[in-house]
Amino acid sequence: MHEKGAPVLIDELEDARRPTSAQALRRLAAIYRRADEAYARFSCPASAECCQLSRRGRQPWLWRVEWIAIQGALARQGRSVPPPRADGACPLLDAEGRRCTVYADRPFGCRTYFCERAAGGRHPLEAVTGLSARLETLALEVDPDASAGGPRPILEWLREGPR
Fold first, then answer.
1. Contact present, 22 and 67 (Cβ < 8 Å)
2. How far apart are CA 112 and CA 123, in angstroms?
3. What's the pLDDT tens digit per position in 122-143?
4. Of residues 149, 131, 143, the one with CA closest to residue 18
5. CA 1, 23, 137 angle in degrees (round to 5)?
6. 3-state class of 62 per DSSP?
7. Strand positions, DSSP E, 12-87
8. In whole angstroms, what is the distance from residue 43 CA to residue 24 CA?
9. Are 32 and 108 a contacting pair, CB within 8 Å?
10. CA nearest 18: which of 65, 77, 52?
């Protein structure tokens, strides 16, 4: 609390506008729900083929707020960040490499990966583009310094954690 007439520092104003972790995670969950709705009409073969990061040559990129959600999911399971897998698959897969262990909190890039084997129509590009912009806005509100680095590949987060 400031004394009457005392100036309010800009940093304090910025901190007051920054969402709390709980608020940020609720907003992230809402973005994730919308992404799931955009893909609801599609069928997925559930092969975890998209999670074979080395084999596919691609991996999702996460904002810090998404990393916080993954850390929360792991903590609720009583787990720490898993080590890299020998097969090059996402370390968040189960031991058999078939199911995501943080599926409810999987990143936006995992939710919106459009497998060529998915059936259900045209890719919901407009919805994904809009939601991606909302995610970036949220990420920058949570971590204003993120604009310099942007999102990072999931394997980098798993290996190094926050910078």
1. no
2. 9
3. 778 899 999 999 999 999 999 8
4. 143
5. 100
6. strand
7. 61-62
8. 30
9. yes
10. 65
Q: How far apart are CA 46 and CA 99, in angstroms?
A: 8
The answer for residues whose C-beta is within 8 angstroms of residue 104's C-beta and 6 or more apart is: 73
Q: How far apart are CA 92 and CA 71, in angstroms?
A: 11
> Is the Cβ–Cβ distance between 42 and 115 less than 8 Å?
no
Residue type, 98: R
- Count how many residues are written for the chain: 163
Is residue 57 a contact partner of residue 95, using CB atoms and an 8 Å limit? no
A 10 A CB-CB count for 62 gives 24
Q: For residue 100, give both structure tokens.
A: 């995501």
CA distance 111 to 69: 14
Over residues 70-111, the pLDDT tens digits come to: 999 999 999 999 999 999 999 999 999 999 999 999 999 999
- Residue from 114, 119, 142, 147 nearest 129 by CA: 114
Under 8 Å between Cβ of 24 and 65: yes
Joined tokens for residue 106: 């999987």
Using CA atoms, how far apart are residues 86 and 141, in angstroms rounded to an integer?
36
Predicted local distance difference test score (pLDDT) of residue 81: 92
